[in-house]
Amino acid sequence: MIGIYMTYKLMSIAAETGVQVWSTVYQSSSPSLSFGGVAAFFAVTILNMNYWADNACEVETWSRYVKTYPNEKNSWKRNRNATIAYLVALPLASSFMVFLGALSTYVTGNYNPIEAINSMTNNPFLLSVLLIMIILAQWSTNSVCNLMPSGMCIVALFRSKIPYWLGIVICGLIGVISQPWLILDNITLFLITVGSLWSTIYGMTIADYFLLRKRKLNVPDLYKSSGESQYTYANGFNPAGFLGFIIGLVGCVLLPDYAFITGVIVAGVSYYFIAKYWVFKKYPQSELGPENEKCHGISVGREWLYDEQKNIVYPSK
Q1: Exposed, middle or buried: residue 172 (CB in 10 Å: 0-12, 13-18, 19+)?
Q2: Do residues 121 and 127 touch, judged by C-beta distance below 8 A?
Q3: What are residue 305's DSSP bridge partners?
Q4: 317/304 Cα distance (integer angstroms)
Q5: What is the DSSP code (8-state) at residue 237?
Q6: DSSP state of 210
Q7: Rg (CA), the chain
Q8: 119: Cβ–Cβ under 8 A, 6 or more apart, which residues?
């Protein structure tokens, strides 16, 4: 709703100032794409991927609440509710935001539609409505994309011994103390750095869960104490993860303009070969062994239950 209102206001400003938005999409009768234009668009796309990288790695925070279909073998059908949202809704919303920024830049010369509308509107009522909409937008976006995943991480860090609301409060305090608004003057460098860090994790997650484990997990071992679990590896550290992370970061440093894609590919490929041909041979994983069927979950109608007295996780069947 906020974006639609901003589009309406920008179109109104364009009409008042005589800017022909739709008739000047192309500057010549035979438009063509230049290499510089394609490279610039690709670079902006990479920055946008860097921005969403942390949310991509934290997607399970939301997907755990999405309805799935037990005993459905087909992964697409079993997760269709979540998949449609990620493949349709998010790209459409992101594309609309890109369009809104481009429209604001073309009409007013300012890429920020909020600042552009504010500078060209003197109506106190409209400014008040815009302010309320901005607050609601920031509230909803930060609650879902920032506070919710971070709060879950804080709760997990304390082994679920603190309530969710306290995890949110801790995250809020950390956010205020870190003063994130100070990075705005170097936002591009910050996005490249964050995207590089998250891209390596993203690539290794794809390699580990989809390519190596084939979407299976030994869930009970995830909750066992160090030394009793197959995920203990070398004193609690996965060598493939550390090496893949470092190699991926080196790739990002060498190609900073394409950091996210570089990190995903380099870290993912490195992790795959290191884990498959060294780490998993030294530390056997149930998902890759002959009894991997026991690692199936919802696809066979199996749920994982927690026994609080024994402090163990066990399958429902």
Answers
A1: middle
A2: yes
A3: 314
A4: 9
A5: B
A6: I
A7: 24
A8: 108, 110
Q: Are 201 and 245 in contact (CB under 8 A)?
A: yes
> What ranges do the domains of the chain cover?
186-317
Mean predicted lDDT score pLDDT of the chain: 80
Which pairs with CB-CB distance under 8 Å and at least 24 residues apart come from 71-79?
71/299, 71/300, 71/301, 72/298, 72/299, 73/299, 75/215, 75/299, 78/298, 78/299
CA distance 170 to 173: 5
What phi, psi does 170 have (nearest 5°)? -60, -45
Taking 70 as the threshold, does the pLDDT of residue 313 lie above it? yes
Nearest to 70, CA basis, from 304, 285, 287: 304
Q: How many CB atoms lie within 10 A of CB 49?
A: 21
* 58-68 per-position pLDDT tens digit: 777 777 777 77
Instruction: Name the pLDDT band for 29 (thresholds 50, 70, 90).
Output: very low
Expressed in percent and rounded to 5, the helix, strand and coil fractions of the chain are 70, 5, 25
Give the global pTM: 0.77
- Identify the weakest region by mean pLDDT among 129-133, 205-209, 246-250: 129-133
* 29 or 165: which leads in pLDDT: 165
User: In the prediction, which pLDDT does 31 show?
Assistant: 47
Question: Of 250, 279, 34, 2, which is closest to residue 117 (Cα–Cα)?
Answer: 2
CA dist 56 and 161 (Å) reads 26
